[in-house]
């Protein structure tokens, strides 16, 4: 067995819609029957997910929900992590799917909402950094495989002018994933970074662009199957075949580059 097939208890942060919800339900259906905890802010959505599972009495026992705001202050994140680890000592996998996207146009700087820009980088990147740090003592102590599953984006590799803050936040998540992979390489904690392309979800609803995007996005069910295949294999980077050329061009060599081994950090004349 490999990857998420080894997981006994999976927390999905940002599981009330879109990719997080679909992955949580697909993981819950794995033959290995892991416990799955869905987390997000909207209690009505969490209730819906639990209600849908009620038809299957056995399955319902392993599906749980926690209302949680990943943008909360550090003290609240600490409380959430402590309570979650106490309630679920088997927790071995955290999927970071909470995310937001804002359109910013630098040719109209007076229209750029700097509070939105700060919220975007805080949720998309800082919350992952903070929660990873806070869950790490528990994961390192488990004595068996544990997984961190950050969700970055194709936009970590290529920058789109319309969503500059989002691209920067996803590039940061990608960089963090690679740093984690390096620093945790001799431990039980492994990283599986999911890099979705444009996928059917609610991410763009508040921008009013969803109707146009429905013509070009990957259907959620199709994407979920692809992502689950990668998670089950235990892939470090999960990239759709359509974006393999981008990956090969920009990231392939970077991902296994070891700056210490090559002396890239040493500042001396040749
Ligand atoms: N769809 C795409 O095209 C695409 C492409 C590349 C990457 N991604 C990434 O995939 C991830 C999932 O996005 P999605 O496309 O599935 O969008 P989505 O349908 O809008 O889902 C976003 C999820 O994040 C949760 N969330 C938002 N703010 C939160 C907060 N403060 N605390 C906790 N949860 C929060 C939402 O739940 P609540 O509102 O209930 O809190 C929701 O469950 C994001 O990281 C996104 O950037 C998406």
Automatic annotation (TrEMBL):
TM ranges: none
InterPro entries cross-referenced by the UniProt entry: NAD(P)-bd_dom_sf (IPR036291), SDR_fam (IPR002347)
GO molecular function: oxidoreductase activity
Keywords: Oxidoreductase
Membership in a protein family: Belongs to the short-chain dehydrogenases/reductases (SDR) family.
Name this polypeptide is given: NAD(P)-binding protein
Organism of provenance: Schizopora paradoxa
